[in-house]
UniProtKB/TrEMBL annotation:
Pfam families: ATP-synt_I (PF03899)
Record's protein name: ATP synthase subunit I
Organism expressing this protein natively: Planococcus salinus
Sorted UniProt keywords: Cell membrane, Membrane, Transmembrane, Transmembrane helix
Cellular compartments per GO CC: plasma membrane
Domain of life according to the entry: Bacteria
Membrane topology: Multi-pass membrane protein
InterPro entries: ATP_synth_I (IPR005598), ATP_synth_I_Bacilli (IPR039072)
């Protein structure tokens, strides 16, 4: 099984390609607010994924060392999601709110899809 860091690196590459497609959509279509929301949401989602990976590595080290286990940063990731929504609300004329929320979920959907493909290929 791949390590958490390798999975994150692979997902990050996929997300950058998706972000490039969103930027093209923002620049070449009349749906700039929708693509702006997808871009903002995906960037915040990538940040949330980075926080999760970092906290999971700390969690793994704490369990291995037998020390006290800290949280996985749920509050910080929730606050980050709320910040993405706040940005979308603050700039509502330029950023579509629903697209921002969908963008927040892009990294997690990719993670789920990537893991399903991995397990189908290797089992």
């Amino acid at each position: 099984m791949d390590g958490l860091r390798e999975i994150y690196t692979r997902l990050k590459k996929m997300i950058f390609f998706i972000l490039a497609a969103f930027v093209l959509g923002w620049g070449l279509t009349p749906y700039q607010a929708v693509f702006a929301g997808l871009i903002i949401g995906t960037l915040f989602g990538l940040y949330n994924m980075w926080i999760l990976v970092r906290r999971m590595e700390k969690f793994d080290r704490a369990v291995t060392e037998g020390s006290k286990v800290r949280s996985l940063g749920t509050a910080l990731r929730f606050a980050s999601g709320a910040a993405a929504v706040a940005v979308a609300i603050l700039f509502a004329q330029h950023i579509h709110l629903i697209s921002t929320v969908i963008g927040l979920m892009v990294p997690y959907v990719l993670l789920l899809t990537e893991r399903i493909v991995y397990h189908v290929k290797h089992h």
